[in-house]
Amino acid sequence: MPVSSSVPRALRRRKRGGQATFTVALTEKPTAHVTLHFTSNDTTEGTVGNPELTFTPDNWNAPQEVLVTGVDDDIADGSQTYAVTYSVTSEDSAYAELDPASVELQNKDNDSAGITVSAVSGPTTEAGGQATFTTLPDREMRARMVRYMESIPGFDKLHELPWYPGKRYPGVISRAQAELKART
Fold it and tell me: pLDDT digit string (tens) for 69-113?
């Protein structure tokens, strides 16, 4: 194949914008410019920083670098495999007819599902005294809930929910505890 790539054995991306690179060069001198067009097959897991590389009859065998950045999706979905695919355009028929292989990557997950639980309001008693606590969904669950509610036509009160992103969660718990104490 007239295109070669140098891909590290374990090319993995960490979420939160981790980056990886691989290099590409031509294996035969072209008769015209050769442009490689790169794209991710799953932009929710990784994106290509430089979507085009051009080789000429002068720089055909000089390796050029492709930069890939992992995407943090705020979902505990485990490490996800995706691929950088590319196509070739050239007036050199040997390159114009190529169907190059893709480069497989893995976006390592950094999310975990969970629930935040407030402190218990106090002990229970044998006389029937009650203790309360408040639960709030964690960041991932809030993100899922927000995405779902935003998809509901006409839902415009999302910002009023106590766990909406940007709200101060400890304040919600404190208010709930204060309301409980005021009732007893």
Answer: 988 877 777 888 899 999 999 999 999 988 888 888 888 877 766
Distance CA 114, CA 144 (A): 12
Percentage helix, strand, coil, to 5, in the chain?
Answer: 20, 30, 50
Asked if residue 16 lies in contact with residue 110, where contact means CB atoms within 8 angstroms, the answer is yes
Residue pair 52/67 in contact (Cβ under 8 Å)? The answer is no
d(CA 43, CA 72): 11
Who's near 33: CB < 8 A, 6+ residues apart? 54, 55, 56, 90, 91
User: Strands, E, within 62-132: which ranges?
Assistant: 64-70, 80-90, 103-108, 115-117
Count of alpha carbons within 13 angstroms of residue 32, beta-carbon side: 10
Report pTM.
Answer: 0.59
- Residues 128-167 have pLDDT tens digits of 878 776 666 666 666 766 676 677 776 666 556 655 555 4
